[in-house]
Amino acid sequence: MNRKDFMTGAAATSVLMAGCQSVTENRQTKKWQNGASRWPICLDTATLSKDLSLEEKVELAANAGFDAIEPWDRELKNHEDQGKSLSDLKNKITDLGMFVPSVIGMWGALAPEKSVFNKEIEAHKNRMRMVSALGAKHIQVIPKFDRKETLDHDTAAWAYGKVCELAKEYHLEPAVIFLNFVNGLGKMSDAANIARKSGTAKPQIIPDTYHMFLGNSPAHELKSYDKDFIAIFQFADAGPDVNLLVLKV
Fold first, then answer.
1. How far apart (Å, rounded) are the C-alpha atoms in residues 211 and 245?
2. What percent of the chain has pLDDT over 70?
3. 20: closest CA among 243, 237, 230, 246?
4. Do 232 and 22 contact (CB within 8 A), yes or no?
5. Which of 229, 152, 208, 205 is nearest to 183 (CA)?
6. Which long-range contacts (CB under 8 A, 24 or more apart) does 119-127 make?
7. Does the N-terminal or the C-terminal CB of the chain have fewer CB atoms within 10 Å?
8. Of 120, 113, 53, 115, which Cα lies nearest the Cα of 89?
9. Among 89, 73, 68, 199, which residue's Cα sits nearest to residue 142?
10. Helix axis angle, 86-95 relative to 54-64, nearest 10°?
11. Among the listed residues 183, 207, 182, 205, the one whose alpha carbon sits nearest the alpha carbon of residue 193
């Protein structure tokens, strides 16, 4: 099944809606894509050339018909380093009829040790400040990539809980991601366990078809998650087996 068939399939609707419900306040009545869709279509800005400014990426996304964009923190930093305002960019995104559901992300915030997390609090807070200025609702919480040791879920849950506490000041809802190449965080169930163990009032994760496929996370697992447990849902092009995986939900 190709991407076009998948996006228009009834089975896909149930999965995509689960991922978009938490970012669509009036999801019962709102229509996207000129009324053709019940969920917004969002562009990961990292898929565009690094030579483009974030403003140019916003304009391209709007002209292409996207409902939303998902930038990366480095793009927000570059924007400010050039003396530009993220609040002004937020207004531009709104004027173009788009919004920002999420930003990638809080690098290393799922720290392997409490001391490591504490040393980087100011960096985490600065990322959240930028994300809040852009008007996003979610920020993605990411592990350290330079560790071979298996990520300890108790420590990661503690760190995620701390992130959620810090995020209140910035009116953000952090969500745990999973990456197939990170020991201890390669499956969707790993992210779910960390989020739930954190004790935060509204734990959330971000499913991703690419990492679900490579990490062998069964799609039927989604049925065990309440819709509010899913911040957003990331879909990526890949082989035909990925579509088959999701359609089994």
1. 12
2. 83
3. 230
4. yes
5. 152
6. 121/166, 124/163, 124/166, 125/166, 127/73
7. N
8. 53
9. 73
10. 10
11. 205
Q: DSSP states of the chain as a string?
A: --HHHHHHSHHHHHHHHHHHGGG-TTTTT--BTTTTBSS--EEEGGGS-TTS-HHHHHHHHHHHT-SEEE-BHHHHHHHHHTT--HHHHHHHHHHTT-B--EEEEEEEEE-SSHHHHHHTHHHHHHHHHHHHHTT-SEEEEEE-SS--SPPPHHHHHHHHHHHHHHHGGGT-EEEE---TTSTT-SSHHHHHHHHHHT--SS--B--BHHHHHHTT--GGGGGGS-GGGBS--B-----HHHHHHHHT-
CB 10 within 8 A of CB 16: no
- Weakest mean pLDDT among 14-28, 34-48, 86-100, 172-186: 14-28
Are 109 and 163 contacting, i.e. CB atoms less than 8 angstroms apart? Answer: yes
Domains, the chain:
3-39+98-247 (3.20.20.150)
Structure tokens at 128: 């959240």
Residue 240 has pLDDT above 60, yes or no: no
Q: Per the confidence metrics, is the pTM higher than 0.70?
A: yes
Residues 10 and 12: their CA atoms lie apart, in Å, by: 5
pLDDT at 249: 36
* pLDDT score recorded for residue 35: 87
